[in-house]
Amino acid sequence: MTSQPGETPFGAYAGQPWIQHTGQQLGQQLGQHGTDPGPHFGTYAADHLPPTYPERAAWGTAQPLRAWQQEALEQYFRTEPRDFLAAATPGAGKTTFALRLASELLRRGAVARITVVAPTEHLKQQWADAAHRAGIRLDPDFSNGDGDYPRQYHGVVVTYAQVAARPPVHERITRSAPSLVILDEVHHAGDALSWGDAVLEAFGPATRRLSLTGTPFRSDTSPIPFVEYVRDERGIRLSRSDYAYGYDHALRDGVVRPVLFMAYAGTMQWRTSMGDEMKATLGHGDTKDITNGAWRTALDPGGAWIQQVLRSADVRLTHVRQTVPDAGGLVVATDQAQARQYAQLLRDIAGEEPTVVLSDDTGASDRIGAFSQGSQRWMVAVRMVSEGVDVPRLAVGVYATSSSTPLFFAQLIGRFVRSRRRGEVATVFLPSVPPLLTLAAELERQRDHALDREQADDQLLDDDLMDAAEKGDNDDREAAPFTWEPLESSATFDRVLFGDAEFGQLVEPATEEELDFIGIPGLLDAEDVSDLLKRRHARQAARIRDRPPNQEAPEPLYRNMREERQLLNSLVAIAAKRRGEAHALVHAEARRVCGGPPVAQASMQQLRDRIRYLRKVVDKR
To answer: Coiled-coil annotation: which residues (predicted)?
Structure first.
């Protein structure tokens, strides 16, 4: 391919004298200061990329490459494989690593074209900006209809959806010259069967392929293109990373922030589509159906639970901003309607209009960019800010979504771990439900993508189950005399999770006991976080122990009995529907197994025994 007048041909930077001269000048400058420049990876411009684009070096003394990036590059260039999978925790600096590698391959003449594939439109611009700082020119505005891109660029940035729409276009570009393909968050290539096939078709001819992921697993068993799978001792095929840098390692290195999880419980009441009124405590060991209902009720914008949690999160943000003045908060909602309602609540709580980001809204990327560079307190989004989007000043989050897969959870928490200075602490508020508490406790766990699924994998709720519970099926809609409706909710501070340890106990919000934890400093070294939490836990326990006993009268027996009967009847209804049996038969079975008289004459303990039995029955599905 020949270049046109005024244009730079592809690969023109590879091995050019001015680059070598600039590198020699850099070496001389470093030598004058008595510093050995060490091994060289990439161009002069790439050498001056900060370790975690787009922020400057974490605390002003970091080297041009972090240790893990240097190690991964050395490992790559020892063998220069065609395929390389780098799994590094969000916030570690995968973009810098990838661009340094791309720059070096261009310099050596190993490749002449670069294609970056990103999950979202917003990330296309982010990649192009980062590449510009590394001396690599990428076109983020390329469309499939263009067929090719202007020669003054080294390559393009596209989305997985764009590739899936017209894979032959990208295959032609890949074949036209030796190409490096960077697959950002490569697990997205398995989002749909057609996407995986398209990626294989478009980039099968690539000279080099670099796959990146911050979450090297998926919640399903769709294979990820260009990823190697090996069997473990149980015969399960697991993805194999060529280089892995996990959250626990990054935390020890001071590359990412420690994350505190503030869990909130409470009492929830709702009406099912069959007209049954349910009441449950958030976080208790209930069936999945009851957990779904309680969780969904907690997230209702009209209820007291989410309103109180937003108030507590805003108090936490105020404390953080005392030491980190530009610290921001992010609320992630289940859908757009709830996102708008949460924004209204935050406007009243914080006295400031929050930034609202909706994925189908024009200008969403611009709003994210403006928020990232500004000093506003809050941003509210659905899923657009869940992965890959860099807003390093985010320090406080509210997990106000019903999504519960390990993949989504890890992606979302990744928005808060990016460290700008030593001592920053991230705080995420979440419902006290078993699936999220399990994921929070296992934040440091290294996962791989498994093509073979074990039974009861992770003991977690799946997003499909939550969606089904919310939408129901056709039979439900025809038979249901009522619409599912949240009735009432309340919030109580439950506990703090840090690593695999828990601190605190149930207390009312807006009390000194809650403030003990949400008021901890916003700047704190990771090794000091646990010690401080232990001291706060002991102080809270002492206050509660020394408090005068509660003299309030207990609830009347008939109220407690009524609630237990309502719960029993709801479980009977769930079991009866699944089995296609009459309610009376399920009641009779529970009575036969557990003993006792009919429901109307059963004691409190007899009712609870039947509830416990039916929970086991309902969970066996």
So the answer is: none
